[in-house]
């Protein structure tokens, strides 16, 4: 303490001009300022001089003349940073600009993924793919149907039935079919003839079933039974039973006889024999019928009990042929109508039409068994079956009674009612209920 100045302990040194900086000991490291420029460095030998053989290093190197103190002896080669300059920061050289970097080349285009690595196609492409397959499937089905139709059409047995004759009736409204079931044994083996009780060869082929089908332009179809014993005029042969026309001149003479007796123009014809009849029924798996009374007929080869039952081809054939009932031919006509209704119902059932294993045997057996006119085709038969699918109106020609003649006991039509009945058919008018025979 200075004794001359009692205030020495409290004297303060006046501040110097400018803001004093912190002491070197308290300065932060690294000091603030511009970032140190990175320069090539040199390895310093033990004498403090740069090693002339040393490659440049990664850090800056200060020349020896700028070092604050000589390097300590016995030091290993080292790297020394540039000492901090209070005024200019790290070094006096201006900052160096880094050379512009070379732009990297664009990456090569990516290769398309392999087929296994590809995912599902886009939805739009997938839909288009499925649509194409659908079109191919439809085309295959259409071609298969066309091929099947051509095959079936070529298997029909065509004969000249509807040939013109002098004075033939002109065309009438609607479409009219003449259907016949004959006792023809064509294609039957001796064993089948014995099984079906056909009686072997009995001479000229005869028609056991004769039906007229009228398809109106609108409304239900009408299925009309023409009794085989109907007493009619046969062109060139006088008066005889209707089925005699079939035996005398075959289907062409039968068509001419029906047209002249009814005044109705026949547009199509289809006939079937014993063997074809049984095959069609068996192809359907049998026909379901309900009988009001038992039928025991050794001549037809059947012994049927009353009640509902399924008839095979053999029993169905005997059922439509038998006359071993109280009303004989009248009952047989009724049985034939019952059978036709059941047959059409079974053939046009959804279970048959939707099952190719049932439909194909049915149509193929029917086509091979049927005899049609030269101008008829399989699509005409399909149109007939489609028109009858809903159940036609079934009836028989109005009957006046029975009579004994030179050709045996015959059935006589009621001329007044039969005339009005067929006039309505020829003009495509609905038949009054009082003319229908159920």
From TrEMBL:
<feature type="compositionally biased region" description="Basic and acidic residues">
    <location>
        <begin position="85"/>
        <end position="101"/>
    </location>
</feature>
<keyword id="KW-0472">Membrane</keyword>
<dbReference type="InterPro" id="IPR004474">
    <property type="entry name" value="LytR_CpsA_psr"/>
</dbReference>
<feature type="domain" description="Cell envelope-related transcriptional attenuator">
    <location>
        <begin position="206"/>
        <end position="347"/>
    </location>
</feature>
<comment type="similarity">
    <text>Belongs to the LytR/CpsA/Psr (LCP) family.</text>
</comment>
<feature type="compositionally biased region" description="Pro residues">
    <location>
        <begin position="21"/>
        <end position="34"/>
    </location>
</feature>
<feature type="compositionally biased region" description="Pro residues">
    <location>
        <begin position="102"/>
        <end position="112"/>
    </location>
</feature>
<dbReference type="InterPro" id="IPR050922">
    <property type="entry name" value="LytR/CpsA/Psr_CW_biosynth"/>
</dbReference>
<protein>
    <submittedName>
        <fullName>LytR family transcriptional regulator</fullName>
    </submittedName>
</protein>
<dbReference type="Pfam" id="PF03816">
    <property type="entry name" value="LytR_cpsA_psr"/>
</dbReference>
<keyword id="KW-0812">Transmembrane</keyword>
<feature type="region of interest" description="Disordered">
    <location>
        <begin position="1"/>
        <end position="122"/>
    </location>
</feature>
<keyword id="KW-1133">Transmembrane helix</keyword>
<feature type="transmembrane region" description="Helical">
    <location>
        <begin position="130"/>
        <end position="150"/>
    </location>
</feature>
